[in-house]
Write a structure and sequence with these properties.
Layout lengths: L12 H10 L4 E2 L1 E6 L5 E6 L3 E5 L2 E7 L7 H9 L1 E6 L5 H6 L10 H5 L3 E2 L8 E2 L4 E13 L4 E13 L19 E3 L3 E3 L29 E2 L1
Length: 221
């Protein structure tokens, strides 16, 4: 099919949703863990994680419009913290199931068979099966008037990963952790590193850079 003009108004709703969601390409697949003030745990699949800066260490998520019944946003607003847990190839099915619209009083951990784990620092639960887990505190909520979504900005305060994942230069080898990417709403993909290149400078050609290095630490806090 060749598109000479983009006319979303004439696309069937489900077709339009799938089409537009696929246009942004590969995205990271993450499970966001929260807990409400009554202790009820919640787990939601997000593919909108965006790096905002390293100092402070900021990460953003996009919360859906209120028609979606925003359990994650409500919990983050109430408690001020959340976790971001990278999905690997062995947990695709339960992670995808977390995108189902469970009732507010249902814990997705229980519904899909994943394990909540607490660091003792944050009130929010981590996913025990994940190999890269980030703990964040809420820093800002940015409403988007155009479509009633909300950008959630959190600061990373702790990181848990596996031995050997962090190289001597700080590079985190997420491919070695089996991390998957998602395209559209329901397509999951493995990865294959094609190249890692040295820091770009105007007076030098791109040069290969090793992916590995000596492990610095297992847990960063």
């Amino acid at each position: 099919m060749a598109l000479t003009a983009f006319d979303p108004g004439n696309m069937p709703r489900r077709y339009r949703t799938n089409f537009i969601n696929a246009l942004s390409g590969f995205k990271s697949a993450n499970l966001v863990g929260t807990r409400n003030t009554d202790g009820r745990e919640n787990l939601a699949l997000f593919s909108s994680a965006v790096h905002l800066g390293a100092d402070p260490a900021l990460l953003a998520l996009v919360s859906r419009p209120p028609a979606s019944d925003r359990h994650t946003l409500d919990n983050i607003t109430a408690t001020g913290c959340f976790t971001v847990n990278q999905v690997h190839a062995d947990m695709i099915a339960p992670a995808h199931q977390c995108s189902a619209r469970y009732a507010r009083d249902v814990s997705e951990f229980d519904a899909v068979g994943l394990t909540p784990w607490y660091s003792g620092t944050l009130q929010a639960p981590y996913v025990g099966e994940s190999r890269l887990r980030l703990g964040l505190v809420l820093r800002e909520l940015v409403p988007v008037a155009l479509n009633d979504t909300v950008i959630i900005i959190g600061e990373i305060t702790e990181v848990f990963t596996e031995t050997g994942a962090v190289g001597a230069d700080g590079y985190v080898d997420i491919e070695a952790l089996g991390a998957v990417a998602v395209s559209g709403l329901d397509s999951y993909h493995g990865t294959q590193r094609l190249s890692r290149l040295q820091y770009a400078k105007p007076d030098k050609d791109p040069a290969p850079l090793a992916a590995g290095g000596n492990t610095l630490i297992n847990t960063l806090t």
